[in-house]
Design a protein that fits this description.
The protein is α+β, with helices and mostly antiparallel strands. The chain is built from 2 helices and 2 strands, in the order ββαα. The chain starts with a strand and ends in a 12-residue tail after the last helix.
Length: about 90
């Protein structure tokens, strides 16, 4: 059975974990390892982004806010627009 010792450093002091005997530790669920076959698939074929880096949800919130503000602004413009008295004298 293959095994390996990994050194992690989350604070100032590094620490070792062994795989597979300590594979239940969360550190091993935070990384992906690619073999020769899977790396060729990742590099040579279409690959969709399947994760969102931390902080990108900010842009979703900004876009939703802009949509709400746009709808509200259009409603305000329609509500406050004065009727053009001279429009009836022109053919559309």
């Amino acid at each position: 059975m293959p095994k390996c010792k990994f050194t992690f450093q989350a604070t100032t002091k590094p620490y070792d974990l062994e795989y597979p005997s300590q594979k239940e530790n969360i550190e091993f669920s935070r990384f992906n390892v690619f073999d020769t076959h899977s790396v060729l698939v990742q590099l040579g074929q279409d690959n969709q982004l399947n994760f969102t880096p931390s902080g990108f949800e900010f842009f979703d919130k900004v876009m939703k806010l802009l949509e709400v503000l746009s709808v509200k602004l259009i409603a305000e413009i329609k509500a406050n627009r004065q009727e053009n008295e001279f429009a009836k004298f022109f053919v559309p």
